[in-house]
Specification:
The protein is an alpha+beta fold. The protein is built from 3 helices and 9 strands. 18% of the residues are buried.
Length: 157
């Protein structure tokens, strides 16, 4: 299935005949009908391709609640945000991949990134003692602009 054709009215059906089909917009899959969500997934897949082409070993980080339980070391609560990947052969850095719309304001190309998300990433960096890098791709609808590298890093030998 091509995810770029999914809308709120799309019905995904797979399984037994007696199972009831559901509309995407009214299900746990509702994010798939949002162009920015699909663009983000495509950016993560493209990042994996770029990493492999450059010889980086990625470990995908799970984003479910149970994966965050291991970081609850104290009774004191502080918000954390985990990246999407660890780069195992590059200092174990954590990468959070984003795909954002860029805007030209006062002749500067900018994108929006929530300050509280930066704070959460900094909390995680302090907790794990691993550097965190935000890899940002430029979004175009539900796609990313692959020919405009806005961020990259090279391994030093």
């Amino acid at each position: 299935m091509n995810i770029s054709t999914i809308t709120e009215d799309t019905i995904i059906y797979q399984g037994e005949q007696h199972w009831t089909p559901v509309q995407v917009g009214k299900s746990e899959f509702k994010n798939y009908c949002k162009d920015y969500f699909r663009a983000g997934l495509k950016a993560q897949e493209y990042f994996k391709i770029q990493a492999k082409e450059n010889g980086f070993i990625l470990e995908e980080l799970y984003q479910d609640k149970s994966s965050f339980q291991q970081y609850l070391l104290t009774n004191k609560y502080f918000a954390i945000k985990q990246g999407d990947f660890l780069v195992r052969n590059f200092g174990n850095i954590e990468i959070d991949v984003k795909c954002r719309s860029f805007h030209n304001i006062n002749e500067q190309l900018i994108f929006r990134f929530r300050c509280k998300d930066v704070d959460k990433h900094l909390n995680m960096q302090k907790l794990t003692n691993s550097p965190i890098i935000i890899a940002v791709y430029q979004r175009d609808g539900d796609n990313l602009k692959k020919d405009i590298p806005l961020f990259h890093f090279n391994r030093r030998n």
